[in-house]
Amino acid sequence: MRIRINFAKRYAVLAAAFLFTVQAAFAQNDNTPSAQKIADKVDEYMNAAVKNDQFSGSVLVAKDGSPFVSKGYGMANYELNVPNTPKTVFRIASLTKQFTAMAIVQLQERGKLNVGDSICRYLEDCPSAWQPVTIRHLLTHTSGIKNYSSLPDWDDRISRLPYTRTEFVKVFRDIPLQFSPGEKFAYSNSGYYLLGLIIERVSGKRYQEFLRENIFGPLAMKNSGYADPPTLIPNRATGYYWASNSFVNAPLLNLKLSFAGGGIYSTTEDMLLWDKALYTEKLVSRKSLEEIFTPFLGGYAYGWRIVKMHGRTMAGHSGSFDGFSTFIARFPSERTTIIVLSNSDRTSAAKVSKDIAAIVFGDSYELPKPQISDVLSLALAQRGIDAAEREFREILRERAADYNLGNQEKAINELGYALLEEQRVKEAIRIFTLNVELAPRSANAHDSLAEAYMLNGDKPMAIAHYARSLELDPANQNAIKMLEKLRKMN
To answer: In terms of C-beta distances under 8 Å and separation of at least 24 residues, what long-range contacts does 420-424 make, across chains too?
Structure first.
């Protein structure tokens, strides 16, 4: 007799058994919700975010290395109508830094380098100012080397030019150190770019080849790698911006410049394999792992930031690249991990991770709400500036609790500048004025309103708001320059 297996029933039994195991692990703490309740609340939270166009991506929550939430939300590609899944591949941006740090420590264990060495021992044409800079300084963002992505013309020019790796170092090599090495913490993508060059120099292999052979391969991270622009990557998500009340493709930049600071792609499932390996000695010794996770200035370790979240020690990192936002949060004492990978600039993966952690640990959180900037933008597009202003004020007066009013300044500011680009200066002034009302202590909001008044020929109002901006932020160089210019005008 042929035996027919009811695979659906078998899967249901296995799933129930797995969920029982995870629930048992959480039941050890009476204050922690059950695994099923957590999964339901995470799904409720994520669906609210998707409904309000605030999330597109994949999330994973694991306990003791076993995922009990693993799901995609929104679209990996809107043009082809492809949804996100746990197998969708994302650019993980600055989460790359933890892999770069691991590669450096592996080379140290093999006697190829020491993190206390001067970087000039491994870099060609090394400027004399970098002689005191050690590899450890690069790992912990305490080198004083200027962050290339904070240069004034990074977005509009530098990030789009076809530099080779050696040529690109010249962009920041002759900029004076911001401080003496080891004196302060200042996040620097430049430092991790140099770490990538050191890995290649010491190992004799290309950066991506070294990671594939020493991290991705040994951990069976089959859907992770270095995003060389010409390479076809199956299941890869497209990065999106939000503009004119809809998603648009993120701009094309020179992806090679991300290199060892932000060039890796991965999935939530592969990132869990990485997380699990960090509890073992598969990649490096226990002693080296302790070194990796020892925080220096600013709570930053080697590619990880060690902070308190919901009263618990968290080792985590965020990542942001045009159209992508990512975060990994590891709670070692609780053996709990949260991984959020998004392909939308509307997402703060860090905030999503923090809120999911609140759900996991039974702390307070709020479901995502509609953004008042969206209401303002849509009303402006469909019904004009008068209707947009009326609705904005009515929400603030009567329905403020139903909307997200925090962190809206940037979005409203961008709406004002979009009007300036269309030479709709008077309408821009009204939008910037609403922004000042929403964020009266924002130096940037006053600065933008001042610029609009200046373009409208209203010198007194421009001076008033530049002065207020400078009062709120005495380091605002633009306000200093524009006030000087305006006061010299007849």
So the answer is: 420/451, 420/452, 420/455
Please give the residue range of the domain that contains residue 409.
372-488
Q: Tens of pLDDT along 403-423?
A: 988 778 888 998 999 899 999
198 occurs within a structural domain? yes
- With 0.90 as the threshold, say if the pTM is over it: no
Residue pLDDT, tens place only, 81-126: 999 999 999 999 999 999 999 999 999 999 999 999 999 999 999 9
- Asked if pLDDT for residue 24 goes beyond 80, the answer is no
95 touches 267 (CB < 8 A): no
Q: Which residue has the tokens 């691991």?
A: 102
Angle at 322 between CA 175 and CA 359, to 5 degrees: 115
Residues 233 and 335 in one domain: yes
- Regarding whether 271 and 122 lie in a shared domain, the answer is yes
- For residues 137-144, average pLDDT: 98
Number of folded domains in the chain? Answer: 2
Average pLDDT, the chain: 91
Tokens of 173: 């090599």
Of 307, 337, 361, which residue is a domain's last? 361
First to last CA, the chain: 101
The answer to the question of residue 314 being in a domain is: yes
Q: What is 32-94 written as a DSSP string?
A: SPPHHHHHHHHHHHHHHHHHTT---EEEEEEETTEEEEEEEESEEETTTTEEP-TT-BEE-GG
